[in-house]
Amino acid sequence: MPPNNKQSKANRALEALDKGEIGIIKPRDYKGELDRPRPGVWAGKTKASSPDTTISSAIPLYSVDAHSPMRTGWKKTIYYEVRISSRNRREVSLAMGYAAPPYPTFRLPGWHRGCLAVHGDDGSKFINDRWGGKDFTAPFQPGQTLGLGMTFTPRDVNAPPSYGPAQTTAQTPIDVEVFFTRDGRKDGSWNLHEEGDAQEDLPVTGLEGFNDLYAAVGTFENVEFEIVFNRGVGTIGGRSLVEGLQRLQVGSYLFGFNVELEKGSEPLSIVP
């Protein structure tokens, strides 16, 4: 069965998405604590005996009906962060990614169709990868804030070739860039349709902008973390957007991301 792209979205879910007040779905086999200290932030701490599990957002961060560039004519960027506790052990047994439903909660993100992820224990990226992933970044470290985003841009497949370096050879109507941040700075990116090893790479079906995409955070063994969805759009404690983010999100790429939104680089509201 192909990834489900027909899930309905209630208005209240879209409003929650716009505010960053996003819930999560806790896997049945998850062992440990998982609480919401404040709207849009989830704090977790797993046990050493924890098996592979994937926590997903309760609503899609990318909704085909609301966000597809083919529908809106706008590019769309989705993004969230994970903060690793400074008390965490040296190896960070956590992965962060995006998945098109349905996705098995008993596997780490990136190991199954319709999913991509960056794994913290070795820094490898996985895209529907049943093998060992590909080298991408350094392993996650205790005390770091990591972020993962995807940008969907409308693409004119009939346009003449540009004089710049080719970004992709795929003739798809949506160009998809995946980017990764570490402590508020961009730390790598890739184009979803970059040329790879045809003998090993499996299809990226479900990730191309034609299906809803949910945040997917995988854990195994013991790890202490926070999942941060709330982008702080609007005022924070009566302060302005910029002042509030400077005070509360130092070392977070979310600050710069929101400043760009405030400047009007893309719509603040979700297109119905």
* Count of strand segments: 13
CATH architecture label: Sandwich
Count of domain modules? 1
Strand order of the largest sheet: 2-3-13-5-9-10-11
Unreliable segments of 5+ consecutive residues? 5-10, 162-168, 195-200, 232-250, 258-272
**CATH superfamily assignment?**
SPRY domain
| Radius of gyration, whole Å | 18 Å
Principal-axis shape: globular
CATH topology: Jelly Rolls
Keywords: Membrane, Transmembrane, Transmembrane helix
Protein name: Protein ssh4
InterPro entries: B30.2/SPRY_sf (IPR043136), SPRY_Ssh4-like (IPR035780), Ubq-SigPath_Reg (IPR050618)
Organism: Lachnellula suecica
Task: Describe the protein's architecture and organization.
Residues 28-38 have a biased composition (Basic and acidic residues). Residues 28-49 are annotated as: Disordered. This is Protein ssh4. It is found in: Membrane. This protein has 272 residues and is an alpha+beta fold. It has a single domain (23-230), classed as Jelly Rolls. Helices cover 13% and strands 29% of the residues. The protein is built from 5 helices and 13 strands. It has helices at residues 11-19, 64-67, 69-72, 241-248, 253-263, and strands spanning 24-25, 32-38, 41-46, 53-57, 76-84, 94-99, 115-119, 125-127, 145-154, 174-182, 185-191, 214-219, 224-228. The chain has a 7-stranded antiparallel sheet, with no helix packed on it. The longest helix has 11 residues, at 253-263. The protein is globular, with a radius of gyration of 18 Å.
